[in-house]
Amino acid sequence: MKKLSQLTLSFFIVLNIVAVLILILTAYSPYLNPDFFPISSNLGLGFPIVLFVNILFILFWLIFKYKGMKYSVIGLLIIAPQIFKYTPYNIQRKPPQEAIKIISYNVMSFNGFKKEADGKNNILEYLKKSNADIICMQEYNVSKNKKQVTQQDVEKALSRYPYHNIQAVGDRGSGNKLAIYSKYPISNIVKIDYKSAYNGSIAYTVNIDGNKTLIINNHFESNKITMEDKVVYERILKMEDKTQIVKDTKGLVSKIVEASSIRQKQAKKVDNVVKISKLPFIIVCGDFNDSPLCYTNRLLEETLDNAFVKSGKGLGISYNQNKFYFRIDNILISRNLKAYNCMVDKSIKDSDHYPIWCYIARK
């Protein structure tokens, strides 16, 4: 075993302890309200990086001083539940025959209404072949130009879904819509009341084989990251100009902090609807625009189970653009339901999101 001087060892021990404390803070940052802890509550975004640093410390101590690894090992034990929440590993199980399949998909206006050379749209073809029972879509928009995806194209492709509802959301009439297509009857459609320029949540009562189920389709506040911001983010990752990096980072952090505060208020509105609902079964899904370790998710998961955490495997990254690689799309279910084989499907890349789907059955 190689030896280090006592001074060097002490230096690395201090660094290791600091790294462990930061790891614990990032792991449990979802318990911090963004209104009171605007920056600390968003530290979960850096969780994988801080986790990796602590794993490096374990390897370091294995090489130089075995006993020193106890600091990171203790840290990992403390935050173990959060590791599983961030990257679960569940054995895939065959769903029961009565299970339904639900898909949540931010379709990005069907990839800008794009039709391929054969006149078909890849996202519509994917949904058509998915054999899902219920499809919830965000950023649902169609064109009136027949050379692009129209409402008639959607209804033709999804003709096996006799029940559907399309609602505009947002206060500014942006045209951003949420849609549900279902093989089961839909009733009692309610727009959840919260202020947002371009986002919203819609609650539906869906009668699934006699079981009335509350389904809430969501598109929570985005971080309003522009194309310029995405270039800035890539520049930060490359660490090219340290002076400029500080300035760039402040700008991005400011946007993330503001959006996080708005999202938690939106999530509280949805959480209130869930808590007062008298329906026996509840499914909440959509584009949450936040990482797995965030206040929004934790708030909703006080009442509901995360289908991916309970039955999925891996990171489940659902946003796929500009190195913002996070699982921001979710399916949550009431605790009298069981999820099977939840997955983020990377077989289609025509939107900036991947679809997330799972099978759901009564316990």
Automatic annotation (TrEMBL):
Q: Which GO terms describe its molecular function?
A: endonuclease activity; exonuclease activity; metal ion binding
Cofactor(s) of this protein: Mn(2+); Mg(2+)
List each coiled-coil range. Answer: none
The Endonuclease/exonuclease/phosphatase domain, residue ranges: 103-353
Record-linked SUPFAM superfamilies: DNase I-like
Keywords (alphabetical) are: DNA damage, DNA repair, Endonuclease, Exonuclease, Hydrolase, Magnesium, Membrane, Metal-binding, Nuclease, Transmembrane, Transmembrane helix
Q: Does the keyword Protein transport apply?
A: no
Which chain regions cross the lipid bilayer?
Answer: 7-31, 43-64
Instruction: Specify the protein name.
Output: Endonuclease/exonuclease/phosphatase
Q: Which organism is it from?
A: Bacteroides coprosuis DSM 18011
